[in-house]
Batch of 2 targets.
Target 1
Amino acid sequence: MAGAIQDFSQFDISKEEIDKLVAEVVRYVLFKTHQNSGCPIKREELVQLVTKNYSQRALPAHVINAAKEKLSNAFGYELRELLRCRPSSATQGRSTQQTGVAEAKSYVLISQLPAEVYKKYVEDENSAHLSGFTFVVISIVHLAGGKIPEGFLFSIMIWFHVLSLHKSYYASVVDILWRHLKRMGLCETDASHPVFGNAKQALETLVQQRYLQKDKVNGPEGNTLFYELAERALDGPVSEKMKEYISEVLFRDDSHFVILML
C-alpha cells in the first residue's frame, strides 16, 4: 500500500492520519457487510467517513483506493465497485439530458480465495443454502429474459405450463431449476419455510442485496410489479458463475436430458 500512501502527500496529511482513515474504512466495510448480510455499501457512506473531519475534495477517492489494497492484501477480499442499475421501464424513453446524471456507486466484498479453499475453510454451512437459493432464483429470472412478474415464485408452475406449450428449451431448464428449489424444501405455496422463512421476504432480501430489483409497469390491466436482474447479478463474476451453474444443473440432471434434445 506504499504507493497509495505516497499519493496522499498532496493533501498535507500525516501518515498516521492516513492509516487511521484507511483502517476506519476497512473496519466499516467488514462490519457493515457482516451486519447487513452482504448488502452493497453505498459509496457515499464511505465518503462521509472520510469527510467528517477532512474537507479535501479528492481525499475520499484516495482513501477508498488504499482501503481496497488493504482489504486485498490483508484480508483476501476484493472491494468490488458496482454501478446501480435503473429499472428497464425507467431507462425507456429517457431524454438525452439525463445521460449526464451520475449513477450511484456501491461496493461489495468478494473473496479472492480459490472456490475449493473458501468452501472448506470459510463458508458457513448454516448459510450455504442461501447462496444456492440466490443462484436458483437469479437463474430463473435470467432464463425468463431478465425480467419476470412479481408472482413468479408462487405461480411458477403455471408459468412452466405456459412455456411448455411451446416446448421451449428454456421451459425445461427452468423446470429443472424449480425442482432444485423443491429439493431444498421450498415450495411455491410456502408462506413460512423453516430455513428460508417467508419466501416473499427471501426475495426481498435479494432485492436489498441488489441481485434483483423491482419495477412497476403500467399496463392495460393496471400496475404490474416485476422482478428483474440488478447490478450484482449482472456483474461479470456473478453472471459467469450463474451461467456455469445453469450448465452444471443441466448436465447433472439426466432425467431431463432427453427433453432438452427434443
Target 2
Amino acid sequence: MMPLVLMAGFLGAGKTRFLTDIIPELAARGTRVRIILNDFQNARIDAARLGELDALVTPLNGECICCGSLRELLQTLYDVPPDPGSVMLIEANGATETDELLGHLTTDGRLAHFTLPLQLTVVDAARWQKRWWHNALERAQVSTATQLFLNWTHKLSEARRAEVEASLRETNPRAARVDAAGYATLLSDLAHEAQDDATRGGRHGLRFAAPAPLGEGEVRRKHEHPFGSASLPLPALVDRAAFERFVDGLPESVVRAKGLVRFTNEPGPMFVWHRVPGRRGVRLDKSWPHADAQPTALFIGVGMPIDLLQELVTGLASAS
C-alpha cells in the first residue's frame, strides 16, 4: 500500500510552499512522491512551481474536490498503479470542506491500495481566525486534521502565538505539530511499513461515517459558502511597477489572487505570482511551466466584480 495524505488549509496558508519543502526531504529519504494538485480553474499555476522537483504532479482543475470535482479525484486515485515505497499527497484547494471528503477516502473500497488517509492542515498563524465569515471554514479544516503545520509564525508576538496555540488545541486537541523534515520522516517510515501491508486498518485513530456513494452521473452537493473564481489572460509582457500597482489595487472581495507573469525588463523567465489579503505586495516564485502556458491571473473570492477585474487587466495592458 501507499500512504495517502490530504493536505488542507485556507486560501494562501502556504500549502504549495510546504510541498516545495517536503518533496526534497522525502527524496533524501528514498521515498518517491505523487501529488494531486486541486485548484479553482487552473491548477497548472501551482503545478508550475513544483516542476523542477522530483515528484509526479497531476493537476486537477475545476471545483473543490469535496464536491464538484470529487468524482475526478476518486477516478484519478483509482487509476494510480501500485507503487510500494512512494506516498500520495493530495493538495486540496483552500475552500475545501474536509469532513465528507475524508469519509470518501476512508470508506471507498476501491482505494484499498492506499492506507487510511492522514490529513495535514497548513495554518496561517498570522491570520488564524481573522477571516470574518470564513472563520468557520478555517476551523473545520483544522478540526479533522491528524497533523498541523503552523506557517508564518515569525510574524507573531509571543502573546499572539500563545493565543493561536491555545485556540488550535481547543479546536483539535489530537493533532500533532510537524515541520517538513519531521513529517517527511513520518511519511517515509509509513511508506516502508505499508509497502508489504495489504490491509487498510490501524493506521490512525480517526474514523469517518461513510457518505452516500455517488450515483452514475451524480455530482456531490455544492458548498454552502459562496466562493467563486475567474481566470483572465494577462499581456505577454508587463511592466513590473505597473503590475505591482495592479495587484495592490485589487478589490477586497478578492480573497486570493495568483497566476503566471513575464516582465518587460526580464522577458525570458515566467514567474508564478501570488498575493494574499492582509500582506503587502506581491510574491514571485520561479516556475517551470508547461510549454503552452500563458501569462494569466486567477482570482478567488466572494461576490467579485468581474467587470472591474477586467478593467484592471486592460489597464495593465495599456501601462505595459
